[in-house]
TrEMBL record:
Protein name (database record): SH3 domain-containing protein
Region (Disordered): 24-58
Length: 159
């Protein structure tokens, strides 16, 4: 049995790996079971690679990267808050409990799934720009790079 500490959103908890509980068994009193996958989503085993799986993300140059990073600075009433788009990577995109790769992946959003993101929540962590969805889960919608990067979401109404 492996015991680790999980810290996120100001709450610390013990994570048990290799036990019935860590393998998705019954939760003890006070713990919530993992959410059921939404329609159009598939259950995802842990993944150590890139957040967006497979080809299909929109690769950008230096100008596009600067525009993406500008979202971190712009939080005003003139900017659209809720943005709509579709998952671009052919093998899907991780949906996580929080904004970062240290948070648990709850499922993969399939290619072409519709998403609504809250651009007022955008955060830069672990080489990605993270945004929250209305259901309070998070996705990496942009992967940063050295003056380059790529979008995992093809937005239809955001700038």
């Amino acid at each position: 049995m492996h015991v680790g500490i999980k810290v996120g959103a100001g709450v610390a908890g013990v994570v048990l790996v290799g036990t019935a509980l860590g393998a998705g068994g019954a939760a003890s009193a006070g713990e919530q079971p993992p959410p059921r996958p939404a329609q159009g989503a598939q259950v995802k085993p842990p993944h150590d690679g890139e957040e967006g799986h497979g080809p299909g993300a929109i690769k950008v140059g230096a100008k596009g990267a600067a525009q993406a990073m500008h979202r971190l600075m712009v939080r005003d009433e003139l900017r659209q808050r809720w943005c709509h788009g579709r998952v671009l990577p052919s093998d899907g995109l991780n949906l996580r409990e929080g904004p970062g790769v240290r948070y648990r992946t709850v499922r993969i959003l399939k290619h072409d799934s519709q998403v609504t993101t809250d651009w007022d929540t955008v955060q830069r962590r672990d080489g990605y720009l993270w945004v929250r969805l209305p259901d309070k889960f998070w996705i990496a919608d942009y992967k940063t790079g050295n003056g380059n990067g790529k979008w995992y979401i093809g937005y239809s109404d955001c700038r």
